[in-house]
Specification:
This protein is mainly beta. It contains 1 helix and 15 strands; from the N terminus they run αβββββββββββββββ.
Length: about 230
């Protein structure tokens, strides 16, 4: 008779234990759920620009209209102004330092003034490749001004004498100064405005009426250009 109560108490204890286990199981299951790992978003690296850049410009060539014939006191010379297309190629050594080579050709009609006013001396074509070393300012956002200095070597070709018997303008070196800016629309495309001063003073030989003479033309042109920039 004593065993029956003990069995009843044991059953109650087992039932309570079972209920406790059932209550704890959902909590343990919830704790066992691993929170989903959100994927990390990595920022794309900026595309590195090429060191090469090209520009295409319309270029105005405005000369100083000075010079003389050695054997004619009071003589002077003047040269025509022109507008021509021009291409330049730049290479960036750093973000600030670049070298620029301009390529373009133009012509000049040469006439006399002063003591030889009215003399149509002749016409020549010029090829003045100019190399400058530039400093580019990079603290103004899309507006990128620069300054430069360098050298040019001018070839005179396809020379024609008019009122003269003979004309020979000699190739020559000259200095160059430069200031300008690019305004970039995006990483590659932009607008450009550029001004250069060339110091160009070639010697020449000329024959007029059978008399051989010589002199110097002081062209010293301003090169004023505007156009489109493309950075590779």
């Amino acid at each position: 008779m004593a065993l029956f109560p003990a069995n009843r108490h044991t059953c109650a204890l087992l039932a309570a234990t079972a209920l406790t286990a059932l209550a704890v199981q959902p909590v343990l299951a919830a704790d066992a759920v691993v929170a989903p790992v959100e994927p990390q978003v990595t920022e794309a690296f900026p595309v590195a620009l090429s060191p090469w850049q090209v520009r295409v410009r319309a270029l105005g060539v405005i000369t100083e209209n000075k010079g003389h014939v050695d054997q004619v006191p009071g003589s002077g010379l003047k040269s025509s102004n022109t507008v021509v297309p021009e291409l330049d190629i730049s290479y960036y050594f750093t973000n600030n330092i670049a070298a620029e080579l301009i390529l373009g050709t133009t012509y000049s009609n040469i006439t006399g003034k002063g003591a030889i006013d009215g003399l149509d001396v002749g016409k020549t074509w010029l090829l003045p490749p100019t190399l400058t070393l530039q400093y580019h300012f990079t603290d103004f956002g899309a507006f990128k001004p620069y300054i430069g200095a360098g050298v040019n070597y001018t070839f005179f070709y396809n020379q024609k004498n008019h009122d003269t018997d003979y004309l020979k303008i000699k190739n020559t070196f000259g200095g160059a100064l430069q200031v300008g800016f690019d305004y970039m629309i995006d990483d590659h495309w932009g607008f450009n405005f550029d001004v250069k001063k060339l110091y160009l003073r070639p010697n020449f030989d000329v024959t007029v009426g059978g008399t051989e003479m010589s002199g110097k033309a002081k062209l010293d042109p301003w090169l004023i250009g505007t156009g489109i920039t493309y950075r590779f």
